[in-house]
Amino acid sequence: MKAVFAFALLAGVLPGATLTECREHKRRGRLTEERTCWQALAQSQNPAWQAEAAWGLGDYTTANTLFRNAVAARGKDPELRVRWGRLFLEHGEREEAAKLFQEALELSPDYPPALIGIASVASGRFESKATELAAKALEKDPKLYEARELLARLALEEYNEKGAVEEADKALAISPEAMNALIVRATVDWLNGKPGTEWVERLDKINPNYGEGYALAAGIFVINRRYEEGIALYRKALGMNPALLHAKAELGVNLMRLGEEKEARQLLEECYEARWRTPQVTNTLRLMDSYKNFVTFKKGMLILRVHKKEAELLRPYFEAELERASNVFEKKYQLKLTRPVQLEVYPDHEDFAVRTMGLPGLGALGVTFGNVVAMDSPSGRKPGSFHWASTLWHELSHVYALAVTKHRVPRWFTEGLAVHEETAVNKEWGDRLDPSTIRAIKEDKLLPVATLDRGFVRPSYPAQVTVSYFQAGKICDYIDSKWGWQKLVDMLRDFSTGKTTVEVMESHLGMKTEEFDKEFRTWLDQQVGGQVKGYESWRKSIGVVGAMAKEQKWDDVIKASEPLIRAYPDYVDGGSAYELLADAAEKKGDKAKATSVLEAWAKAGGRQPETLKRLAKLQEEAGNKRAAAETLERINYIYPVQDEAYHKRQGELWLELGDMDRAIREFTAVIGSNPVDAAGSYYNLAKALRAAGKTEEARENVVLALEAAPSFRPAQKLLLELSK
Amino acid sequence: MAATEKVGCGLKWMAGWALLAATAAPASTWYLTVAGLGGDPVYVQRFDSLAKELDKLVRTTPDAKVTTLSGGDATKAKIHAALEEAARASKPEDTLVVTIIGHGNYDGQDYKVNIPGEDVTAAELAGWMDRVPAQKQAIINTTSCSGAAIDMLRRDNRVVIAATKSGTERLATQFARFWVEAMRNPEADVDKNEMISVLEAYRYADKRTVNFYESQKRLATEHAMLEDTGKGTGVRTPGPDNGHGLLAGQTSLVRFGSLQQAAKSPEKQALLKKREEIEARVEKLKYEKAAISVGDYRKQLAALLLELAKVQEEIDR
Which of A172, A357, B205, B290 is the most buried (most CB within 10 A)? Predict the structure, then answer.
């Protein structure tokens, strides 16, 4: 900052510059004049103006310090706090910004700029209260066109173009030079393939260098998953004003999302060097640094990037599912992808979060950016909490839905298809009906299909995103069951023309969306109504049965558990009635009953690896080795990591059953697990390879076994046999 | 050439040891297992069952002298008496293995094992073990805070294993159950020599403990350490790079199989000698792996291993 002051003094420019003048230059896009003005303003004796000048010159650290000083000197001034908050907001530090806006509201209740500030923070967090706060600001100051502009943007983020246009027009009615309103109008046109000339011309007359507006439009395209168009708009914004570091950072992040890592890194490093060190920039650079720890495998059009510490173990499973899903989707969506698909698997959930940040609804396990899919590794989650294969199919279906529609598919529809695909591939996969969804159904909180997108983007209650996934999935299930799969594909194709949900639903299903909603609810009631009704009694009783089990009242547990399973069969998580009943049956010596109950649990979607292992043991004890092997195989799709023992047992079972391909796969997985018993693991693999007639590979592996343990007698015998 | 001579000399020494082992009176292993106070019923049950299982496992070792103290029996006096008995009756060629299961505490100065009545300190345990003539000793302290006892317990020819890296890791540990698992799981015998060494069991238990915390997504509250040089503060991963693990690798915990029987047969001793020679050549080749091409290494290794397998076949015949 010292250097900036010195330059201003040397230049000797505009000694009497005012904040209003500088802002006006900024507003009109007079970049040179604006900069000169800020430099002059930096010499002001007014600490608040000095802060604004430092901010205008891009020196955020100094601006922060100066705002602190200014606020200390003028403790009762809400405007200063709002401006300081804006500085934090622009820098992506929402928590700090929110605190300052709140402080401003404490000084001046319902102070409209502070309400707008908090609404902007809420908007960045994709919280539903953003709209309420903006509306409240308008109540206090009906002429506050910025509030209308914010409402317009919020509507657009919710895919509500009509609402966005209405709000933008209201803003323009208050101020014909409301530039963000003009940008919203242009963006709506651009989203629909129109040039938006009228709005651009009007904007150019006010400010020919309004890069901020193009960055705003770019953000809307990104939320609509139209990344390439978003990137083009960020480039345009930077072309107008290269000093827009937030646009540069967003451009970098979005290029990274599409796999353009070289340019992404360069841009992010430029931001970092320019001291634009937001969490987004620093975390993304850190993540990119960590890529040296990942390995990439290419197979045809499929690219897999896995952390090297688990690459050997996970690669066979992930490659197989990626290939299987691609083949299935190619047929289902009647589309051959023209660009490679890249799947990135992150063992550290924080890395995954950095990779995906900035998008709504991403408490998530996976996310798709065009042809790049990022997801958690099974090792990034607690065993049983995550079905990675289900997530892979879910995300890959987005790749196809986006490709078919040229990224114009509404959020609810692509999510609905993705959820549908999870159980279409295997009924045991996918998420079950959970208590929060049951409550939402009971309380009639499902959204009309016409506004279902809102449930994903700006949830109005904590579980609404989960509920919306469920609802969207069920809607696709319903359409598939009533009209057939081709109807969903036809609808998908029609979305590519830019039609709205209402238009597509009505033209393809031949009914108003309100009517569809009614029919869907009736169908849904047939599907899950029993569980919704039974939930309350289940909720009251499950704890009682759990207490009975603790007291080892096994007869009582058996009697009470079965009705609970019937009441809420989808509850398969820890402490389920299935497990209580299986425990009781086993304690009473009825292993056959315990086995059948756990089999029902697994079929209902139970996915706790320890319980699956228990079931496999029971099946094996009953002499049903195939069932045991298949039960253990389920774990491959849930938690194939940090457990070499189950891979080994599964391999042995497949070996006994004569299924050498699966035996080889599992013994290979044991080796990929970096086992304690390397010799035994290579020996087992050698045995399976030999049984499969792969003598030379068997010999290589038995040598590896003996390299680890030269006196390992079974391996020695096998080597002798293989050497005959 | 010098290296060959050195290896040859080493082989002579090994062969000499094999002959001695075949003729000398069998060495004993003295096992003392202590399961301290659990406090919570869950821990009482857990410590007691681990001690019982360990007792059962070590009794399968030939010439095992086993004392297991748990519950009300795990008093200071009885621990002292058991080690006094080992001090009186053990021979230098014997091995002493002390395993402590339970809760420990550390007040910044003294480490203590929580047992009924007066607790026992690390210094007291070290003093009592020092009196035992058995030259190979191992103490496996699986309690919380056990890292604080390493300095006090370490000594030449003694392996000290602690479940925690310091006295500040105060939460109940998982290490003990994986230690016991190592002793019953043949997979822990990574070199397949029909014996689980202290080093093999340590590596197995440590890996399983680390996996436990990782899979549960819990912050690891214990980090096991091994010290067997008599000088250091312990290491997490013993190996040639830090000079730890040599004694632990040579100290047997449990044995199973027929190796001992074969060594007693005079007609097989020539074959055993040949086997040891080939094993030494394998080890030498592995040591030289980085210096030769992958293809040559694999070829030579496969040839040696085949030769070794043929000798073993003759021994087994």
Answer: B205
CA-to-CA separations, A411 to A186, A566, B12, B250, in angstroms, rounded: 21, 34, 77, 64
CB B89 within 8 A of CB B215: no
Got the DSSP string for B8-63?
HHHHHHHHHHHHHHHHSPPP-EEEEEEE---SSHHHHHHHHHHHHHHHHHHTTSTT
Four-residue CA torsion sign, A677, A678, A679, A680:
positive
Q: Could you tell me which chain A residue has the CA closest to the CA of B204? A: A676
Instruction: Work out the minimum CA distance from A140 to partner chain B, whole angstroms.
Output: 49
Q: What value, to the nearest 5°, has the Cα angle with vertex A428 and ends A627 and A570?
A: 115
Interior CA angle at B174 toward B60 and A583, to 5°? 85
Cα gap A336→A333, rounded to integer Å:
9
Nearest to B244 by CA among B204, B198, B279: B198
Measure the CA–CA gap between A230 and A227, rounded to whole angstroms.
Answer: 5
Q: What is the pLDDT of residues A80-106, one digit of tens each?
A: 999 999 999 988 888 899 999 999 999
Sign of CA dihedral B181, B186, B187, B192: positive
B158-162 vs B225-227, strand pairing mode:
antiparallel
Q: Where are the beta strands (DSSP E) in A362-422?
A: 366-369, 372-376
Segment A602-637, tens digit of pLDDT: 999 999 999 999 999 999 999 999 999 999 999 999
For A375, phi and psi rounded to 5 degrees? Answer: -150, 165
Say how far apart CA A337 and CA A584 lie, in whole Å: 52
A711–B310 CB contact, under 8 Å: no
* Cβ-proximal residues to A532 (8 Å cutoff; 6+ apart), any chain: A438, A441, A442, A525
For residue A17, what is the enclosing H or E element? none
**Which of B215, B306, B310 has the CB atom closest to A383's CB atom?**
B215
**Residue showing tokens 């009971």:** A442
| Of A45, A30, A357, residue with least CA distance to A209 | A30
Asked whether the beta carbons of B112 and B46 are under 8 A apart, the reply is no
Q: How far apart are CA B136 and CA B97, in angstroms?
A: 9
* CA distance to partner chain A, nearest, from residue B180 (Å): 15
R_g over Cα of chain A: 30
Which residues, at least 6 apart from A393, have a Cβ–Cβ distance to it below 8 Å?
A: A321, A325, A418, A421, A422, A425, A429
Which residues of chain B make contact with A379, given a CB cutoff of 8 A? 214
User: Is the CB of residue A313 less than 8 Å from the CB of residue A672?
Assistant: yes
- In chain B, % of residues over pLDDT 70: 89
By DSSP bridging, strand B64-70 and strand B29-35 are parallel
B268, pLDDT greater than 80: no
Contact A558, A549 (CB under 8 A): no
- Contact state of B279 with A675 under an 8 Å Cβ cutoff: no
Half-sphere exposure of B148 (CA within 13 A, CB side): 21
Name, in order, each residue with C-beta under 8 angstroms of A462's C-beta and a sequence gap of 6 or more.
Answer: none
pLDDT band at A357 (very low <50, low <70, confident <90, very high): low
SS (H, E, C) A451-506: HHHHHHHCCCCCCHHHHHHHHHHHHHHHHHHHHCHHHHHHHHHHHCCCCCHHHHHH
Pairing relation of β-strands B195-197 and B252-255?
antiparallel
Tokens describing residue A132: 């309420």
Q: Nearest 5°: phi and psi at A374?
A: -115, 140
| A381 interaction partners in chain B (CB closer than 8 Å) | 217
Amino acid at A554: W
Q: Tell me which chain A residues have a C-beta less than 8 angstroms from the C-beta of B215.
A: 382-383, 639, 641-643
List, as own/partner pairs, every contact residues B48-55 make where C-beta atoms lie below 8 angstroms and the sequence separation is at least 24, other chains included: B50/B101, B50/B176, B50/B177, B50/B180, B51/B101, B53/B180, B53/B184, B54/B99, B54/B101, B54/B180, B54/B183
